[in-house]
């Protein structure tokens, strides 16, 4: 979910990521509708990222549309960061410090 900072026109775009295809636009709106989307996301524990430029790019997409390949890296970084913030890590990350061999 992204939204621009408060001082700009309020807008929100929600993305859903199932892990098999590119994230898809599931909700979008401006003004009061944007506020409702953001409030609902927060109510359900969805992290909200505020980024004016990304919000402008996502606002160009239609409901049900997948993000374009040009946004894969930035969205992947946001998804990965959201997992870290929630304390979620891939199984193979556990005890990774014990598997590092600096002597090789």
Automatic annotation (TrEMBL):
<comment type="similarity">
    <text>Belongs to the type III secretion exporter family.</text>
</comment>
<dbReference type="InterPro" id="IPR006135">
    <property type="entry name" value="T3SS_substrate_exporter"/>
</dbReference>
<protein>
    <recommendedName>
        <fullName>Flagellar biosynthetic protein FlhB</fullName>
    </recommendedName>
</protein>
<keyword id="KW-1006">Bacterial flagellum protein export</keyword>
<keyword id="KW-0813">Transport</keyword>
<dbReference type="Pfam" id="PF01312">
    <property type="entry name" value="Bac_export_2"/>
</dbReference>
<comment type="function">
    <text>Required for formation of the rod structure in the basal body of the flagellar apparatus. Together with FliI and FliH, may constitute the export apparatus of flagellin.</text>
</comment>
<dbReference type="InterPro" id="IPR029025">
    <property type="entry name" value="T3SS_substrate_exporter_C"/>
</dbReference>
<keyword id="KW-0653">Protein transport</keyword>
């Amino acid at each position: 979910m992204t939204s621009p900072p408060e001082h700009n026109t309020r807008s929100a775009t929600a993305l859903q990521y199932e892990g098999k295809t590119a994230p898809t636009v599931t909700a979008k709106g401006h003004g009061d509708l944007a506020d409702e989307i953001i409030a609902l996301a927060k109510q359900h524990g969805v992290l909200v990222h505020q980024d004016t430029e990304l919000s402008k790019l996502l606002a160009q997409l239609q409901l049900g549309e997948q993000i374009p390949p040009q946004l894969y890296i930035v969205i992947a970084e946001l998804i990965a960061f959201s997992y870290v913030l929630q304390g979620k890590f891939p199984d193979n990350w556990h005890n990774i410090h014990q598997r590092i061999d600096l002597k090789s």
